[in-house]
Amino acid sequence: MATYKYAKVPEHGDHIQYENGELKVPDHPIIPFIEGDGTGADIWRASVRVFDAAVARAYRGKRKISWMEVFAGEKAFTLCKEWLPEETVEALREFRVSIKGPLTTPIGGGIRSLNVALRQMLDLYACIRPVRYFEGVGSPMKNPGLLNIVVFRENTEDVYAGIEWKAGSPEAEQVIALVRALGMNIRDHSAIGIKPMSEFGSKRLVRMAIQYALKHNLPSVTLVHKGNIMKFTEGAFRDWGYEVARDEFAGLTVAEADLGKAGSGARADAVVIKDRIADSIFQQLLLRPAEYSVLATPNLNGDYLSDAAAAQVGGLGIAPGGNVGDGVAVFEATHGTAPKYANLDKINPGSVMLSGVMMFEYMGWDEAGKLIVRGLENAIASKHVTYDLARQMPGATEISTSAFGDQIIKGMDG
Ligand SMILES: NC(=O)c1ccc[n+]([C@@H]2O[C@H](COP(=O)([O-])OP(=O)(O)OC[C@H]3O[C@@H](n4cnc5c(N)ncnc54)[C@H](O)[C@@H]3O)[C@@H](O)[C@H]2O)c1
Question: Which pTM does this prediction carry?
């Protein structure tokens, strides 16, 4: 076990282990958490009470989480003059499953984004974003309940890999010279960004999406790409995706184009593998949402698509997320720090709470996750909600972050 200078390892509790590709979760796991900046403290206070209440109700004392605070963002900077101390990354790796609130992106610091740094350092290659509707939440759609998807966004490659150079820099000029030597032109003094997409990175992401669809009996996995224009990156993502399905999940999956053809050898309930061009999928989710279930996307497309989908069902305040690798996962709020509401006990804690639901499902503690979802559904139905939901719901009463936590705990019994 690593030694920690700032974080305190709880006296009681055990490590989550990972053996032969499977997580082994003890009854009293140690789970690190990063409170988050801005509104993070308010949200975490409410969320941890809900998590503990759900576990206590679901397992009647047999299971309990030992929370371990680890530091990142402003709290870490105050404590140890670093935005992302090495020991924090080590704790997230050592204890395997963790949860975090939003973090400020330091401006002008050495790290461009703490979230991107964490994903890269821990090789959390899939950003998973489930998007579903909660009855009663205001939405711009006539039938928001028809959308129920899980986006698997590749997290380590594409134009987000962070390989770019400023216009006029010696590096950009060198790349321009190289590209010209290869017979292509780039305008003088352009800024340069590189878009790497590998077979390894694409296949492991699609593999995880297909495994998820199979585990949860979901009908389809759609490969989202812009392969009609970017043939060797996005087009290859689609081709590698179909290849994984065909080579590793034969019989369990069937390509949409082969549906109904004799001799495909696929089971009747095989997961259908589809592909859609990136711009078209935005229309499809608005016009034919019920036809989509799991989506696998490259990095940039997935970023846009998951926020647009969350807006479709009523907003980011309750949209959860998880960054998952092989045996290491960090679950996180998808919204930012909303600094203007910090310490006002006002903001919606739903995004961190539903990220907790994802965490419990990942740990195999589904019963605790279900109680939180029920609690939230009943809290929304009671129309006692935080300001962001209240202003979209006629007749609703606005309550604080902490009171919303209480309402959710009450709702678990409903
Ligand atoms: N995952 C992360 O840690 C993460 C994600 C996005 C932004 N950020 C960082 O957060 C900071 C602020 O970013 P921003 O202002 O662009 O986005 P933001 O999400 O913090 O806030 C935008 C607005 O959305 C609303 N909002 C956000 N979360 C809400 C919630 N839980 N309940 C109700 N309303 C909510 C508020 O009106 C807020 O003013 C920046 O430093 C940014 O880099 C962090």
Answer: 0.94
Look at residue 113 in the predicted model and tell me its pLDDT: 81
Classify residue 142 by burial, with Cβ atoms within 10 Å: 0-12, 13-18, 19+: exposed
Q: Which two three-digit tokens encode residue 66?
A: 């030992």
pLDDT at residue 108, rounded to an integer: 63
pLDDT for 138 equals: 87
Angle at 46 between CA 53 and CA 401, to 5 degrees: 135
Q: Sorting pLDDT into bands at 50, 70 and 90, what band is 2?
A: confident
Nearest ligand 1 atom to alpha carbon 318? 31
Indicate if 275 belongs to the active site: no
**What residue type is 178 in one-letter code?**
L
Distance CA 155, CA 201 (A): 9
52 counts as catalytic: no
Catalytic residue among 42, 158, 303, 388: 303
In angstroms, the CA 299 to CA 146 distance is: 25
CA of 40 to the centre of ligand 1 (A): 10
- When pLDDT is cut at 50, 70 and 90, the band that residue 206 belongs to is very high
Whether 114 and 105 have beta carbons less than 8 Å apart is answered as: yes
Largest CA distance in the chain: 69
Helices 299-312 and 278-287 sit at what angle, rounded to 10 degrees?
A: 20
Q: Which amino acid does the sequence have at 317?
A: G
Separation between Cα atoms, residue 180 and residue 160, nearest integer Å: 24
**Which range among 22-36, 226-240, 307-321 shows the weakest confidence by mean pLDDT?**
307-321
